[in-house]
Amino acid sequence: MSKIIKLSDIVPNKCYTVAGFKEESDYSDKLHKMGFVKGTVIKLAPVKTYDPMIFQIRASRIALRKKEASQILVEEIYE
Amino acid sequence: MRRYKNRQFCKRRQCNHKSGHTISTVAIAGVPNCGKTTIFNAFTGLKQTVGNWPGVTVEKVSGSFWLNNQHVSLVDLPGTYNLSPDTEDQKVAERVISDGEYDLIINVVDASNLSRNLYLTMDLKDSTNQIVVLLNMVDVAEKEGLNVDVNALSKQVGCPVIPVIGVDKASVENARLEIEKIVKHLPKHTKHVSIKEVWDTVRKYAHIDEICASVINDSSHTKKSFTNRIDTIVLNKFAAIPIFLVAMFVTFWLAIGVGSVFIDFFDIIGGLVFVDIPSVILEALHAPQWLVVILAGGVGAGCQTVFTFIPVVFFMFLALAILEDLGYMARVGVIADRFMRKIGLPGSAFIPMIVGFGCTVPAIMAARTLATKRDRFMTIFMAPFMSCGARLPVYALFCAALFKEKSGIAVFMIYLSGLFLAIVTGFFLKGTLFKGKSSYFVMDLPLYHAPRPASILKNAWFRVSAFVRKAGSIVVIAVAVLSIINTVGIKDSRLTFGNEDSQSSILAYVGKAIVPVFKPMGIKEENWPASVALFTGLFAKEAIVGTINSLYASINMTDSTAMPESKEEASINILPEIREAFASIKSSFIDIVSSFDVLGIALIAEDDITISEKIGAEPEVYKHLANNFTPISAFAYLLFVLVYFPCLAVIGVAKQEMGGFYAAVMAAYCTLLAWAVATLFYQVAEGRNIIYMIASFAVLVIIYGGLHFIGKHSRRLEN
Q1: What is the count of residue pairs from A and B with beta carbons less than 8 Å apart?
Q2: Contacts of residue B448 in chain A, CB cutoff 8 Å?
């Protein structure tokens, strides 16, 4: 099993899968329905921004603040 | 005509008989940005009606189209990602679908973003089996390297799937023909018991992932997609802000520059249609004068005011719709989020603020795009502090009279004060009226694609018609009342009419009576025209110029009882007026094209005489202004003009968007703050009256306390 890290800490050009949310909040439900469910592949969009960060998930680009991204847990996929 | 109807009726009966299935109402559902409205427009053409869904303020757009020779009504449902209602818009979609009000649901799915779109499809499938999927934007998807296997998708999802390119007429017509075939073999409607949580989110997405894996041929990993390449430039650390400024400049140029070309035109035509012609007709009918005053001078003038806002509102929304359709608007939200979050708002709240520099009315309407009620209301409260175009003539007049060559700096300082007060307001509200949880920022960045002219025009048009219908009514009433008290005067204990902008109107009496209120901000007793002007400024802030101009002139006429400009009765000539209206378009067009000056700032740089000509004031007015104001008191007055009660049109839309209570709070907040700020500035800089300084601080404390009180005792704003 690989290590679980915060979504805000992921590095470019690597793929991750969503592991879950740190805690329930008013946006966690929204994100859940938007496709942030366990096992979904997520990576940084090839666009350099610091905060908000832009992620690629399910063929869409979602911008999230660092603060919100730090509430989402992901694990790295090793190929 | 009747025969034709009969024939249609027979055909319909025949058809029903043949298929044994009646389709009379169809709804279009889809996630936001899936191109739902484009397809709706292509199906229904120009014949559409805009109304409200019962009980909520969500717009209901409906039209009709032909399906198997039947006239079928088609409703555009609000865009939603799923059927669990989060916002008002989505509640409507959920209710309509779960009630089974429609015979057929057309689900528009964006092929370039299949998995998130299919989530809604799955939700829809849970509630009805009478569903057709239109797989839209297959061309865009291909460009991004995604090929969708339509047949496999249809099998997997379990309903007919038709590929379509929404912007291509032939493709849409083909889709319509396909729907005709499908409708003939539609399964019987079975209403599912409940749509709630038939499958949980995780399982649904697992299923969707399976579908996607089997139907999508994805070659996008091999190359950097078109959208990502653009984003790399647009969101670049260094280029983002300059690109953003250019985009804003073009927006303004289109909205304020091009929009204002037509303002005079609409003003003149509106005056002709709503005021002049009715008054001529009424006089020809020998109607009593009070009736003429109320109908033509009051209600008519109100209609004219609303009418003159149309071009600016229209062009502003046109420009915003283009940015939205391009996909750029979402990026603006990302860029602005860094500083907007400091006052507890998401980056997307920045767009309405920018719009506010042009006109506060479309700014407030633009706040609709924000996710939560708290964000929306807070943005609406801050929007009036962005100094709008209508205030500029007032600044120009005063600055030319009192600041001479320093006019530019003075005007700049006013704009800056507005920005500063907006930020202060943000902090004020954050801690009081709109406490709530600090907002979050989740923004979906759509793919870039070329704007679609039809949907942009329609979008802008709907916003304008909404403005006219909803905000229009309150504006007409308020303007009517003010015009009436502006024209009605009491002389020798008899009512007289035609006292506009003179000393003898009721408004002038009121103005004189309340001069003492403005004394702490440096308005002397004999300078009562300045206080009257603040009343006419309620119509539109530029009206202050006209009032000050004619009142100062009328004071100079020693015998104020003679009011020669009472009526131009029956002397209007329709043709020359229309000619003048068209001429105004030409001359303002030359102005904006030659100068590229979107905010009209160049006005400030002109010499006194040119300014007075341009804003329609007499050159002598400068003398009066210089006699009545000091530079400090003039600046205080301008600060007051900037901040106090936003014009009636603004309060009209604010009421429409937030309800009467918050609109009233906003009006009171602005006016009190204006007084406190103007007084404080004047007293610190010139008056040096400790009591007034304390008073203005006291007012600030009262404002804060009041907001705190209301915030505590009113229900928290959810969503």
Answers
A1: 99
A2: none
Give the up-direction half-sphere exposure of residue B160: CA atoms within 13 A in the CB hemisphere. 20
Contact indicator for A6, A18 with CB cutoff of 8 Å = no
Write out the two tokens for B427: 């902090």
Spell out, as residue ranges, where chain B has pLDDT lower than 50: 1-20, 55-56, 193-197, 557-570, 719
Pairwise CB contact (< 8 Å): A52 & B113: no
Predicted pLDDT of residue B377: 92
Structure token digits, residue B716 = 């928290």
Task: List, for chain A, all residue ranges whose pLDDT scores fall below the cut of 50.
Answer: none
The token duo for B128 is 């009805």
**pLDDT for the residue numbered B568:** 41
Structural domains in chain A, CATH included, are: 4-76 (2.30.30.90)
Q: Closest chain B residue to A13 measured between Cα atoms?
A: B221
Shortest alpha-carbon distance between residue B98 and chain A (Å):
19
Residue B148: inside a domain: yes
Q: Are B81 and A31 in contact, with CB atoms under 8 Å apart?
A: no
- Amino acid B333: pLDDT: 86
**Nearest-angstrom CA–CA distance, B638 and B411:** 9
Count other Cβ atoms within 10 Å, centred on residue B438: 13
Show the domain range for B37: 2-187+198-221
Spatial separation of the C-alpha atoms in residues B253 and B259, rounded to whole Å:
8
Q: Give the CATH number for residue B159.
A: 3.40.50.300
Question: What's residue B569's pLDDT?
Answer: 43
Domain membership flag for residue B642: no
Percentage of chain B exceeding pLDDT 90: 14
The ipTM assigned to this model is 0.90
Name the domain count of chain B.
Answer: 1
pLDDT of amino acid B221: 57
| B168, part of any domain | yes
Question: Can you give the pLDDT at residue B572?
Answer: 60
- Which 8-state DSSP code applies to residue B447? P
Q: Is residue B436 in some structural domain?
A: no
